[in-house]
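Quick question, first post here. What does this chain look like in 3D?
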Amino acid sequence: MITITDTIAKLSNFIALSEEKAKDQCKEHGLTETQMHYLEKIADLDNPTVTELSRELRLSKPTVTVTIDKLVEKGFVDRVRSDRDRRSAHLHLTERGMELNATHDIAHIAIAKHIARKVTNSELEELIRIVGKIID
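> Answer (accepted):
Ran it through. Tokens below.
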């Protein structure tokens, strides 16, 4: 009998193999997977502040700031001062950051397409519901 642990291990392995190209892109650009995750979150949150990003990542502001500083230094992120509050800065992906994030998105799309080909529409809806329940 296959256990939930076995299933999770197989799914993790499948996802890891599917994301290899994106991981290779990270390495080519001198980024860690954590830094790539930050780029993805910045895009998802639509130019957040460090405070908003740290809240989403559930990390301290100083921890997030260290990683953002490295991403700024490498040319993947810009800090853009707010017109309304000059003390506040929003994080924007640079063109280079957007291109790399798009490469990572392609890996996620490929995984989603593979899953969609293997299951019915109702199974897909159920999968989305169950995964949503697990992660929320």
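The chain has a mean pLDDT of 91.
The helical segments are 4-18, 20-28, 33-45, 50-57, 61-73, 95-118, 121-135.
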